[in-house]
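_Full entry_
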Amino acid sequence: MGAEENILKLLNSSPEGLSTSEIAAGTGHTRATAAKYLEMMKIRGMADARNVGKAKLWVSASKKKKILIAEDEPHIRRLITVILGRENHDLVEAANGEQALEMVSEHMPDLVILDLMMPKIDGIEVCRQLKRNALTKKIPVIMLTAKGEMTDKVVGITAGADDYMTKPFDPAELRTRVKTFLERHDSERNPVTNLPSRSYVLKKLASLGGNPDIYRVVLENIGVYRSSYGHGKANELIRLTSQIITHNLDGSTDSFAGHDSENNFIVVAGKSSASILKQISEEFASSVPFFYNIDYESVNLKKNIVTMMSSKGETKEIPLVRLAVSRTDRKSI
């Protein structure tokens, strides 16, 4: 049995908690070695620490998924708590951006629900810091915005948010989004979009049976965009695409999406596939011009080109990033 397994066994036998010194004595490690193991176990969600007076006691981590609710409005925090339920999740709260960063460091949650506008440090900066940190960059972040304007969505995406919801939000939709991200946290995910990988999609399709409608949604010309704007901006555009796809699915059990490769998405759209894919294509077409640092008039959606200025001061036309949707099947995924 390894060192971490021994520590976990010891913690499980003492639900009231143990100090680092007691764990060291019980496992035969030095206090410093035990402390290092405990910190790593905390990062991976295997152990947790709580302060009792001046003492720090370690306990076995809860099996419930931990969610941080970072929102400065107390009534909204209470509402989210009621919607998600403490009996279903381990919920922690923060009233401002500074507290949010502290709580993430202390608790290492499985998911962060983050308000865009908060005192001390706003949600944008909190998200940026989380996504720059190697220990926290894979924690999914759902950004709460007060408006439904595309500019707010773009701001959240550029900060690295994995998804967004507009206030006021539908309780059922919030529960669905949270459930989806927590399930993805347990499976193989695409590092850019947090969407399930090809292997997850194949397993999901196998569980459905029958002949569901399967579509391949491809981001064309993303390579040209990357050459002009860089990898970071290209990833933001890819994240936007994933969010547009998932937001337009009808929420049924036979409707889901995956991210097969950089510019290739797999969509199982259920019974409303035609209208869903039409909505995805239309929303993408109206959103993508926001990712070009030019006037809207420079974008020609009919010809699918954008007019830009070269480094030599000459105008040039490049193909606009667009979605190509095609029907596919299990064997071709």
Observations:
- The chain has three domains: 3-60, 66-185, 198-332.
- The longest helix spans residues 231-248.
- The chain has a mean pLDDT of 82.
